[in-house]
Amino acid sequence: MSRYLRSLVSKHSNHLPRNLLYSFYTSLFSVFRKLTGLSPDQIWVRNSLALDYWEFGQSDLDISILVPGGSREAYKIYRRIKPLRKLLLGGEIQIYTTESLKRFTEYSNVFEVNRDPILFELTKHLITNNHLDLKKNIFLLKLFASDKSLFDSPDLRQRKWKHHLDLVGYHLDKISAESLAKLLAENYPFNEVLSDLDILKAIRHSFHNFNIHNLSRTNKILFPNRYVWINQNDTDDILDLESLTDETHRYLGLMVEWEIWGLSSLTHITSGFPLKNLFDHVENQIRLVECLRIATTEKERLVSGLRNLAEYYEDLKTVIL
Predict the structure, then answer these.
(1) Sign of the C-alpha dihedral, residues 301, 306, 309, 314?
(2) What is the mean pLDDT of residues 298-308?
(3) Least C-beta-crowded within 10 Å: which of 49, 155, 163, 294?
(4) Distance CA 260, CA 282 (A)
(5) Average pLDDT over the chain, rounded to whole?
(6) pLDDT score, position 235
């Protein structure tokens, strides 16, 4: 469904009881689960439908799946459920395994995991809670960069963003792309010169264009994972990194953490990327980490996590490369 049609459906359903609208989603999920053959303890909803900030017509069905084993088992499940994806209304699929949770939960962002209450209960003893000031802003930035509707239909995103801001301890009377960019510019502990207009421009750019040659310095700082995905780094990047503050280097390290955790749930495959891109991406992330001014122990931990990520997916090479 187009974003315009979603907005129309959302606006014209406001007069209906919320519990009636919610039953549409629960019924759809029930059908989806039964068709997958997975048990209730293996599959569940997360994000807006799990935390009650959904908007009818705007929200889709984001699901989490947990299966025993490793990447092969995750991929088998994905092959089984792929023909059913339309039932999720465009929602995301995260496929965790017992192996991936054991290997990668330490790299997760606690604010992001909180969007999945069941997963949080399963993993909270493994989550690290350091650098929370940076992590909460990374959490907001990453969600901001994936929410084009905040620009197009801000009135329909108030419930969602109020939840996110409450979670990290921030408040805005009226939430819009402009007010959120201003909040981030004021609260990023960078000591870099990043204005709200810089952030807005970088976010808009991320929706439309991944051409490496058109990236601003702000875009490179805010989204290093997207930048290095393209696999075209050169020596100019090293010079750019050397000019950044130590705090920004810590931020970049935490962005690599986000990437390790985010890619551990088969997301590169469910998003349609070739598996080979993952291995190239891991090598680029390692190049980035090796240039960061962070503690040696932290640098070694990040490199280890990236190597583990590549190793975790090694079993899939003969299956889908």
Answers:
(1) negative
(2) 97
(3) 155
(4) 9
(5) 87
(6) 61
Q: How far apart are CA 171 and CA 182, in angstroms?
A: 12
Do residues 88 and 63 touch, judged by C-beta distance below 8 A?
Answer: yes
Radius of gyration for the alpha carbons in the chain, expressed in angstroms and rounded: 20
The 10s digit of each residue's pLDDT in 77-121 is 999 999 999 999 999 999 999 999 999 999 999 999 999 999 999
Q: What is the pLDDT of residue 25?
A: 95
Distance CA 192, CA 314 (A): 39
- pLDDT for res 144: 95
**Residue whose entry in the numeric block shows the structure tokens 């209906």:** 16
* Stretch 14-30: mean pLDDT: 89
Residues 6+ apart with CB under 8 A from 296: none
- Tell me the average pLDDT across 170-174: 94
Identify the CA nearest to 113 among candidates 265, 225, 250: 265
pLDDT band of 195, cuts 50, 70, 90: confident
Q: Which residues pair with 97 in a beta bridge?
A: 67
**Rounded to an integer, what distance in angstroms lies between the CA atom of residue 310 and that of residue 211?**
26
Cβ neighbours of residue 248 closer than 8 Å, sequence gap 6 or more = 190, 191, 192, 221
Distances (CA, A) of 230 to 13, 262, 307: 42, 17, 19
Work out whether strand 63-67 and strand 43-45 pair parallel, antiparallel, or are unpaired.
Answer: antiparallel
Token pair 């962070």 in the structure block, residue: 294
Torsion angle defined by CA atoms of residues 256, 257, 259 and 264, in that order, rounded to the nearest 10 degrees: 140
Give the residue among 249, 158, 151 at the shortest CA–CA distance from 203. 151
